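Thread: Newbie trying to understand structure tokens

Hi all, I'm a second-year student working on a class project, and my supervisor (Dr. K.) asked me to get a predicted structure for one chain before our next meeting. I've only ever worked with sequences, so writing a 3D structure as a token string is new to me. If someone could post the tokens and maybe explain what I'm looking at, I'd be very grateful. Here's the chain:
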Amino acid sequence: MKTLLCVLIVVGVVAGLGGTVTAAVLAQDTAPECRLKGDAFLFGGASFLLPGLGQFFAGEDGKALMHIAIALGLPIAVYVVAISISRVSPELAAVLIVTSPLAYLGWSVVSAMDAYNTSKAYCQA
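---
Reply by user tm_fold:
Sure, no problem. This is what the structure looks like when written as tokens:
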């Protein structure tokens, strides 16, 4: 139970930081300075392979760090919860361990869509 509480706190802190970074970017009311100009699929593909990479290329450093942190933290959190409940429900723990990579894959898709949309708005060649 303590492990689950710790995981929820970490996820909450990461989500809070992401909201703060996003709010700060929106408050600036300026376009990010793109490090790379090009097709939006390049940014989306980069963020699919490594969440946050497309955001970094688009000049959104804070958002890139948030995407990387979530990409690493989400599967770890699922795995820790699976290990912590393994004594109570080994079947559920096994399902969680097997589906833990799906959490990373899902976040990769979200990150890719965000990088694609941002680059399409600001980083077209």
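A couple of things are worth pointing out once you decode it. The chain is about 80% helix and 0% strand. The longest helix spans residues 90-122. Feel free to ask follow-ups in this thread.
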